[in-house]
Design a protein that fits this description.
This protein has a domain at 2-200: 2-Layer Sandwich (Ribosomal Protein S5, domain 2). The protein contains 11 helices and 13 strands. It has helices spanning 2-13, 93-104, 129-145, 151-164, 173-179, 224-238, 252-258, 265-289, 293-309, 316-327, 354-369, and strands at residues 20-29, 41-42, 44-57, 62-67, 76-79, 113-119, 185-190, 195-200, 206-212, 331-337, 344-350, 374-378, 385-386. Bound molecules: alpha-D-galactopyranose.
Length: 387
C-alpha cells in the first residue's frame, strides 16, 4: 500500500521526494450504541481497513488536499491562516477542522503540507471514515511537526473538530477507537472518565461480518443531534429527582424507579435505551471475558431491538439486514452499528456458515429493498501508524 500511495502522490503532486505514508483504521462498534454522549460504556474495535495518506511538509503555510476517493474534486487549496469551514471544501473540512482544533488547543502546526488521502472504508457506511481521516491528520501533524500530543489527546482534539468545526455533536467513541486500536482486541471504554481496558476478541470458530446497507447517511443531516438533545432533556428531568451526572449513572432499577418524572413517552424511550444499553454493554463484556459468546450475541440482538423500538435509529434497511441475519444458521449475534439511519450491521457468524449467510441475507435484502448490500469479513487492527 505504501507504493500505491507514493504513486498516487506522484500523480497528483509530481514527485515523491521527502514523502511519508501513514495509515489510520476505521472502526466497528460491537455493542454500546448511542451511549458515548450519555456517559455510558462502549465496546468498539479498530479495523484493518481505514484511510491512508501520503504527505510532504511544505516550507510555507499552504495546505493542498487531494482524495483518491473524490478525484473529481481535484486539489483543494487552503492555508493554516484560513482554517474556516467552507462548504465547497467538502471532505477537506475534516482535516482542516483537525488542524484548526490543534491550534485551538495550543499545538503549533507551523508548516503546511501537500497530502493525498485514500480510504478503503466504504463511505458513509457508519464505519467512521470521517473520524479515520481526522485521527490520521492529527497523527500526521504530530509526526511531521513534532507535536507533544498523545493518542488519546489526538482523539479528543479530533472529536472537538467534528463538534465545533463540522457541526456534528458526536461522542468520543469513534475517534478513541481509531486512535487506540489494538489488533485482535476490542476496547471497553467508560466514556464518563475515559478509563479503558482492552479485551481480546476471541471468537473461536466465528468471524465478524459487516453488512453494508448502501443506504447513505451523513451524520450532520441525520437525526443524530436531535437524539442527543432528547437525551439531555430526559437527563435534566431525571436530575430533578435523582443525583446523577449522566444517564450512564443509572442502573435499570433506578431508571424504572424514577422514569415517571420524564413525563413524555418519546423522551422516556430515548433515556431507557441509553440506560439499558449501557448495562447491556457491561454485561456483554463480562460474558466475553467468561468465554460466553452465545450470551454476547444475544445481548447484541437485544441492543438492536432497543435501537429499533426505543431509540428509533434503524430504518427498514438495517432492520431487514438484521432480521434476516437472525434467521440464518450459525449467526451468534447481529445488530446495527454506528449512528444508524443507514450504514452497516455487525454480525458474528460461524466460519462454515459465512458463505450461506452472505448469500441468503444478500438475496433477501435485494428483494425487499431493491438494491444490493455489500458484505465484508473483517479483522481487528491497530491504531494509526507510519508505513
Ligand atoms: C456515531 C458517533 C459516535 C456514537 C455513535 C453511536 O458514530 O460519532 O460518537 O455516538 O454514532 O453510538
Amino acid at each position: 500500500m505504501r507504493d500505491t500511495m507514493l504513486n498516487y502522490f506522484k500523480e497528483v503532486f509530481g514527485d515523491t521526494d521527502g514523502v511519508k505514508v501513514f495509515f489510520a483504521p476505521g472502526r466497528v462498534n460491537l455493542i454500546g450504541e448511542h451511549t458515548d454522549y450519555n456517559g455510558g460504556h462502549v465496546f468498539p474495535c479498530a479495523l484493518t481497513i481505514g484511510t491512508y495518506a501520503a504527505v510532504r511538509l511544505r516550507k510555507d503555510r499552504k495546505l493542498r488536499f487531494h482524495s483518491m476517493n473524490f478525484t473529481e474534486k481535484g486539489i483543494i487549496d487552503s492555508s493554516l491562516d484560513d482554517l474556516v469551514y467552507k462548504k465547497e471544501d467538502d471532505w477537506a473540512n475534516y482535516p482542516k477542522g483537525v488542524l484548526w482544533a490543534l491550534g485551538e488547543h495550543s499545538y503549533n502546526v507551523d508548516k503546511g503540507f501537500d497530502i493525498v488521502y485514500f480510504g478503503n472504508i466504504p463511505n458513509g457506511s457508519g464505519l467512521s471514515s470521517s473520524a479515520s481521516i481526522e485521527v490520521l491528520t492529527g497523527f500526521i501533524a504530530k509526526q511531521l511537526c513534532g507535536l507533544d500530543i498523545d493518542l488519546i489527546k489526538i482523539s479528543l482534539v479530533s472529536q472537538y473538530a467534528e463538534n465545533k468545526f463540522n457541526g456534528v455533536n458526536c461522542g468520543i467513541m469513534d475517534q478513541f477507537a481509531i486512535a487506540m486500536g489494538k489488533q485482535d482486541h476490542a476496547i471497553f471504554l467508560d466514556t464518563s472518565n475515559l478509563n479503558y481496558e482492552y479485551a481480546p476478541l476471541e471468537l473461536g470458530d466465528a468471524k465478524l461480518v459487516i453488512a453494508c446497507s448502501n443506504k447513505k447517511r451523513g451524520l450532520g443531516d441525520s437525526k443524530y443531534n436531535e437524539r442527543r438533545s432528547e437525551c439531555e432533556e430526559a437527563l435534566a428531568r431525571l436530575q430533578t429527582v435523582v443525583k446523577i451526572e449522566t444517564l450512564g449513572d443509572l442502573s435499570e432499577e433506578e431508571f424504572e424507579q424514577h422514569k415517571d418524572v420524564i413525563k413524555d413517552e418519546v423522551l422516556t424511550k430515548r433515556a431507557k435505551h441509553a440506560v439499558y444499553e449501557n448495562q447491556r454493554t457491561i454485561h456483554a463484556v463480562e460474558a466475553l471475558k467468561a468465554n460466553d459468546i452465545t450470551k454476547f450475541g444475544l445481548l447484541m440482538n437485544d441492543s438492536h431491538i432497543s435501537l429499533q423500538h426505543d431509540y428509533e435509529v434503524t430504518g427498514i434497511e438495517l432492520d431487514t439486514l438484521v432480521e434476516s441475519a437472525w434467521k440464518q444458521e450459525g449467526v451468534i449475534g447481529a445488530r446495527m452499528t454506528g449512528a444508524g439511519f443507514g450504514g452497516c450491521t455487525v454480525n458474528i457468524v460461524k466460519n462454515d456458515a459465512i458463505d450461506a449467510f452472505i448469500d441468503n441475507v444478500g438475496k433477501e435484502y435485494e428483494e425487499k429493498i431493491g438494491y444490493k448490500a455489500d458484505f465484508y469479513v473483517v479483522e481487528i487492527g491497530d491504531g494509526p501508524k507510519e508505513l
